[in-house]
Design a protein that fits this description.
245 residues, alpha/beta, Ribosomal Protein L25, Chain P, 5-stranded mixed beta sheet, 12 strands, 25% strand
Amino acid sequence: MRANHRMQRLFVTADLAAGAAFEATKEQFHYLSNVLRMEDGASVLVFNGRDGEWRAELGYPTRKRLLLNPIEETRPQPEPADLHYLFAPLKAGRLDYLVQKAVEMGAGLLQPVMTQHVQGRIANLDRLAANVVEAAEQCGILAIPEVAAPRRLEDLLAAWPRDRRILFCDEGHAGQNPLPVLAAIGEKKLALLVGPEGGFSDDERRTLRSLDFVTPIPLGPRILRADTAAVAAMAVIQAAIGDWR
């Protein structure tokens, strides 16, 4: 069932059930009351990543308090997305964009990976998590993707579960079309690995190509920026073997 984009959506931490009213946070109170100027009895859509999506009515017991009262479930909780997104951090502004687009494209886990040529860093996981929630609110996503702590590429590969295949965006791939490569993949559990702006080092590329649970894929004839490559790769994966089919 598709999201209702005409109604305001709000991520909450409270359990959701009919009649189980809960108090809005200060930030939510300010946004709904002062920014959107929503009145008593108005409705919003709320979700917590566990209990589906609910239509909730606003109530103001006092001028400085706001209660949200779930009335009816509008969408059941879906299974979480299973595509893992492994990415070398970018600089702050583009990293925010990258995280938001990964959520929109159906990533279920976001794993920062520290490579030899990485240019950005993860200074605050809470900021990444906030971007994930914001993207979910805007795009109608109910299952909130997990944000993992950064790991070095070599450590990640050493402990990698062999039942999940890594699709490695290889800028040095001899081909241009990823579709034949993707069509030959039988596994259902997948991860996408996108490198930094400077690309993977020669040693990293040799290591990745030597592993039997890693499949290099090309992304066309042009060199793409890391954030563009991520969106392009996730789109073609979802269309060819993912949840767009």
